[in-house]
Amino acid sequence: MRDGICASALEAIGGTPLVRLRRLVAPGGADVLVKLEGGNPTGSYKDRMARSIIEGAERRGRLEPGQRVVEFSGGSTGSSLAFVCAVTGHPLSIVSSDAFAKEKLDTMRALGAELTLVQSDGGRITPDLFVRMRAVVDGIVEREGAWWVDQFHERDALVGYGEMGREILEQTRAAGARVDVFCAGVGTAGMLVGVSAALRELGAVRVVALEPTSSPMLTQGWAGPHRVEGIATGIVPPLLAPGSFDEARAIDEEDARALAPRLAREEGIFAGTSAALNVAAALQLAAEVGAGSTVVTVATDTGLKYLAGDLFAGRA
Fold first, then answer.
1. What's the pLDDT band for 219 if we cut at 50, 70, 90?
2. Own/partner pairs for 309-315, CB < 8 Å, 24+ apart?
3. What is the pLDDT of residue 125?
4. Three-class SS of residue 231?
5. SS3 breakdown of the chain: % helix, strand, coil, rounded to 5?
6. What confidence category does residue 314 fall into, taking pLDDT thresholds of 50, 70 and 90?
7. Residue 257: is its pLDDT beyond 60?
8. Got the DSSP string for 81-104?
9. Is the pLDDT of residue 295 over 80?
10. Comparing 9-45+158-306 with 46-148, is the CATH topology the same?
11. Which of 270, 275, 282 lies closest to 312, judged by CA?
12. Does 316 have pLDDT greater than 50?
């Protein structure tokens, strides 16, 4: 619980709980701890990134007061940027697609973003989709004099995610635990790199980068279509520098989609597909490293963003 009154909604970012799984971990496995990022103002860990990028750009004079901001986004980054820009007074243009959850697109609009949608290939996330979205961004920069966030290269994102890593360290220390393994899906890679750098400040931590088997760029060198929003954009992201992780692992998307309802009904963790993919990997790793160790991962968002789709529909 926070003390006192927040000066603005930006101060409500972070301070999220770290929860131990009770039912899904196999007997003899390591402890699995999940950082619940759905408690951030827009229900996503991306609030941390959006605040650190906008504040960093303002501080360095790259973003002028009242200047338009633009980015292409699959949803959570767009929602978080809309939230931060609403507080900081920057008009915002987001380029997105019908491939992403309607709830996310509606959230961007509700927070004041101007939204341009690029048609997908049958609702699937494909590498060329991001290329086409980027082309629309370039046009907005030229016409409007907008400042492009460029989240795939912006190192200020690591500042916000480093704060998450330090929270995890404080929470595990307070419980007398240590972090042996950290795993997370890779989109821009900012969260994986920022969190793991903070965790490694106090010792060796095995870091595992995750992706869906349907788009195994990190593990096999090729990209394919998938439906896991927020990760696997078809490239090796520039922020994923050599040495920033120890292993890349591909997780079956259908396994993650089947796990999401179980997470909600058996652990009370209500989150989306990328969060379920993170937990699926954490459960694998927990079985491999065994009792006495601790695996940490992140529930990146809230399941409220996925109720209009089929993730939870008809799941018994």
1. very high
2. 309/101, 309/102, 311/257, 311/260, 311/261, 311/272, 311/273, 312/260, 312/261, 312/264, 315/258, 315/261
3. 81
4. coil
5. 40, 15, 40
6. low
7. yes
8. HHHHHHHHT--EEEEEETTS-HHH
9. yes
10. yes
11. 270
12. no
Chain mean pLDDT for the chain: 94
Sheet holding 18-20, edge to edge: 18-20, 31-36, 294-299, 181-185, 206-212, 247-251
**Backbone phi and psi for residue 69, each to the nearest 5 degrees, phi listed first:** -110, 145
- Phi, psi (rounded to 5 degrees) for 258: -70, -30
Judge whether residue 246 has pLDDT over 70: yes
Query: In this predicted model, which residue has the larger pLDDT, 287 or 1?
Result: 287
Residue 43 CB burial class (10 angstroms; 0-12, 13-18, ≥19): buried
- Topology annotation, domain 46-148: Rossmann fold (3.40.50)
Q: For the residues 142-167, what does the mean pLDDT come to?
A: 96
The CA distance from 4 to 2, in Å, is 7
CATH architecture assignment, domain 9-45+158-306? 3-Layer(aba) Sandwich (3.40)
Q: Which H/E stretch holds residue 61?
A: none
Residues 6 or more apart whose CB falls under 8 angstroms from that of 283 comprise 21, 24, 25, 26, 29, 32
- At residue 309, does pLDDT exceed 70? yes
Mean pLDDT of 163-171: 98
- Kindly calculate the radius of gyration of the chain based on its CA atoms and give it in whole angstroms: 19
Domain ranges of the chain: 9-45+158-306, 46-148
Q: Are 238 and 194 in contact (CB under 8 A)?
A: no
> Which secondary-structure segment (H or E) carries 120?
none
Token duo for residue 138:
């370039």
